[in-house]
Design a protein that fits this description.
The chain is α/β, with parallel strands linked by helices. Strands 1, 2, 3, 6, 7, 8, 9, 10, 11 and 12 form a 10-stranded mixed beta sheet that branches. A two-stranded antiparallel ribbon has the order 4-5.
């Protein structure tokens, strides 16, 4: 029997799913989330306001937010999910933590979300949190990477638009570099595994497929590693790019020492801060281009947060009602106005979003091409460390691209067997 017995009938009848207690007091719902998600839902940032104010009133519900940074949040979530009973009614999980073992601890949502149209949510987002054909979590937030470029610096070289292909990007990066002057055409975060995933995707390379099988396409990974090595050898990447994190990249963009960077779309506002740079208004953003002939012509590394109901929760119907509200298109738009990355791509077409988000069209384009380079499994941390080690070795010329690619895939295969 479905855990959500009666929910479908109530929805069909237009009845509010939950109400206050017998004494008239609001019933509490506990949500474990990252602070950025709480902010976008409650409207402490942006112009979308409190997206759940009316819902809380109608349903007699008070939300108790428990927030934490990524690591502690997931430790708490899985600890609670393994209990026979938990006070956490809804938990947010990041895609890289959504292993099969983790998903098995969550309630299937198919009955809860029945009747909702998810056709504008990328299937890759839904597949990442589906287990044995059952949706185990609802995607609600993404952070997708883009190509940020200094239009003024490109114009100095007679370049009037963003690169249309990865080959064009490489050519542009080399043209904009002046090694002796400390100016670089491109900067990629080389301090973490995901920083260079867009380059892999540009060549159609992945580390695993959607089902977790290790990629057999060492050639595509080799080509991606070779591209990084060529960019580094040409002086188009900073000499310390393997130790250069987000803060240093941002400083380089502000100072005009870095012409292009690969970072999430929302860095646009930071890069164009008038108080920090003379290039405010000149830092543009576009979807990251794939190599010529790739379909789609744009690629993007993405991370996705999804809302799940622990199987041990005692408040599933109330939690289900909250998830349905979070999936509502109007709620999604208002959360977007509060700084959220909307998983419903139709939100980018809303006039309010177009006015508030200058890069709405480019981000929609990127999200439609967004994929995951590696599927989560219990040893994913070790696998990403192996990738990072071999990527850096290939880029710096310490290994051939072919050897680094082979060592990466063999190492991930070994990690999955343990």
């Amino acid at each position: 029997m479905s855990t959500f017995k009666g929910v479908k009938a109530l929805i069909a009848a237009g009845v509010v799913l939950v109400s206050g207690g017998a004494d008239g007091r609001a019933q509490e719902l506990t949500v474990l989330a990252h602070p950025s998600i709480q902010a976008s839902v409650m409207g402490t940032t942006g112009t979308g306001g409190d997206t759940l104010a009316d819902w809380r009133t109608k349903n007699g519900t008070k939300i108790n937010w428990v927030t934490a940074d990524i690591g502690p949040l997931h430790d708490r979530l899985m600890r609670e999910a393994n209990l026979s009973s938990t006070a956490i009614d809804v938990g947010l999980i990041l895609d890289s933590y959504a292993t099969q073992a983790a998903l098995s601890k969550f309630e299937p949502l198919d009955a809860c979300l029945k009747g909702l149209d998810f056709s504008d949510i990328p299937q890759t987002f839904l597949d990442q949190v589906t287990q044995d054909g059952k949706l185990k979590a609802l995607p609600i937030r993404h952070a997708t990477t883009a190509l940020h470029y200094n239009a003024a610096l490109l114009a100095e070289k007679g370049i009037q638009q963003a690169p249309a292909s990865f080959e064009d990007l490489v050519k542009t990066a080399k043209a904009l570099s002046e090694r002796g002057a400390g100016r670089y055409g491109l900067s990629i975060d080389g301090t973490n595994a995901g920083g260079t995933f867009n380059v892999l995707m540009a060549y159609g390379a992945t580390l695993t497929d959607a089902k977790g099988q290790v990629s057999a396409d060492a050639e595509a990974l080799t080509r991606a590693f070779q591209a990084l090595a060529d960019l580094y050898a040409a002086g188009a990447l900073p000499s310390n790019f393997t130790a250069m994190g987000i803060d240093q990249i941002t400083q380089g963009i502000w100072q005009g020492r870095i012409a292009m960077s690969v970072q999430p779309f929302n860095r646009y506002l930071t890069y164009n801060d008038k108080a920090k740079t003379d290039y405010a208004g000149q830092i543009k953003v576009a979807a990251f281009p794939a190599t010529e002939g790739q379909t789609p012509p744009f690629v993007a590394r993405t991370t996705v947060w999804s809302a799940a109901i622990p199987a041990a929760s005692k408040n599933k119907e109330r939690a289900c009602a909250l998830l349905r509200q979070l999936a509502d298109p109007e709620t999604v738009v208002r959360m977007t106005l509060n700084g959220n990355g909307p998983v419903r791509t139709n939100a980018y077409d809303d006039p309010r979003v177009k006015e508030a988000v200058p890069y709405a069209d480019a981000e929609k384009q990127a999200v439609l091409g967004a994929k995951f380079v590696i599927s989560p499994f219990d040893g994913i941390g070790k696998a990403q460390d192996l990738y990072l080690e071999n990527m850096q070795a290939a880029a710096l010329g310490r290994k051939t691209a072919a050897q680094a690619a082979r060592d990466t895939l063999d190492g991930i295969a070994a990690a999955k067997k343990k």
